[in-house]
Amino acid sequence: MTSLKWKRKTLRKIAEELGPLGIQVSAKTVGRLLGELDYSLRSNRKAIAASSAPDRNEQMLHIVKLRKRFTRAGKPIVSVDSKKKELVGQFKNPGVVWSKSPLLVNDHDFRSTAKGMALPYGIYDPTTNQGSVFIGTSHDTPQFAVESISQWWDAEGRRRYPAARQLLILADGGGSNGPRCRLWKEQIQTEICDRYGISVTVSHYPTGASKWNPIEHRLFSEISKNWAGRPLDSYPTILNYICRTTTAKGLTVTACLDRKEYETGIKVSDEQMKQLRITPTTNLPRWNYTISPRNVK
Questions:
Q1: Do the Cβ atoms of 64 and 205 come closer than 8 Å?
Q2: What is the pLDDT of residues 63-108, one digit of tens each?
Q3: Cβ–Cβ < 8 Å for 173, 179
Q4: Which of 89, 168, 214, 254 could bridge to 114 as Cys pair (CB 3.0-4.6 Å)?
Q5: Contact 50, 82 (CB under 8 A)
Q6: What are phi and psi of 151, to 5 degrees?
């Protein structure tokens, strides 16, 4: 016996290799014996964490307390994030579907043959188990992220929470809604706080902890399962699959196509940052802050 703990050979080949050792056995018996020894075909599992961010556990506990406080007060909470970009066209989409014949797709995923790009940005309300996804067609920028949140608040949020004067946003630690992004904070100030007269508290998940953001496992994963194995051949197809995503626990989702062209590379000066009414927390200020409206009446 060797120290080998895994092997990628078929049951038939394993049975054939046992023959010269004087062991005559069928492939089915090999499979049964492997099962009795607790062996099975397994895939790689992402479980080895890289060096975690300092104060990671403390920030996770802070988020838990924030959610409890907002929930008890009946204040709105949203989990936000960008989903993986998708090529629009006859491209292979991982997964399987019940069908009498395979769905034919392009043999290569060339960007030049796509009808466009779909950039989903999601807003998930864990209190009501409702989600909204805005499909961008240009660039995933802080302006697009905040515009999506603003549209959600205007169409659903303030009607769902008519007495709310404060909103909690749970966001990842990078991308278009990262804590270091100045434009993200400036846009929240102008497009949400000043426009609607509400304060926005933002709490970011530490690096490497985004999988605990509720939107990932409560909304995005369900959308991916719903359209698995189906080519995303048009924007209406994408919107249709998103809107038809439901779960046994009552998840409902709305979707909207945003064809606005969002400019990249916009800079926010130090002077503009000084004009923001932003208040970082005393503890872990790089991940937690509240932005208040400047035109309070």
A1: no
A2: 999 999 999 999 999 999 999 999 999 999 999 888 898 889 999 9
A3: yes
A4: 89
A5: no
A6: -65, -40
Q: Which residues of the chain have pLDDT under 50?
A: none
User: How does DSSP classify residue 155?
Assistant: I
Tell how far CA 102 is from the center of its chain: 29
Read off the amino acid at residue 115: K
* CA separation for the pair 59, 287 (Å, rounded): 8
The burial of 190, by beta-carbon neighbours within 10 Å (0-12 exposed, 13-18 middle, 19 or more buried), is given as middle
How far is the C-alpha of 88 from the C-alpha of 99, rounded, in Å?
A: 22
Q: Is 194 helix (H, G, I), strand (E, B) or coil?
A: helix
Tokens of 76: 């709105």
Separation CA 115–CA 83 (nearest Å): 19
Neighbours of 277 (CB within 10 A): 15
List domains and CATH numbers for the chain: 56-291 (3.30.420.10)
3-state secondary structure of 183: helix
Helix 27-36 vs helix 11-18: angle between axes, to the nearest 10 degrees?
100
**CB atoms < 10 A from the CB of 155, how many?**
13
160 token code pair: 């769902």
The two structure tokens encoding residue 275:
């004009």
The per-residue b/e assignment along 110-141, b for 16 or more CB within 10 angstroms, e otherwise, is eeeebebbbbbbbbbbbbebbbbbbbbbbebb
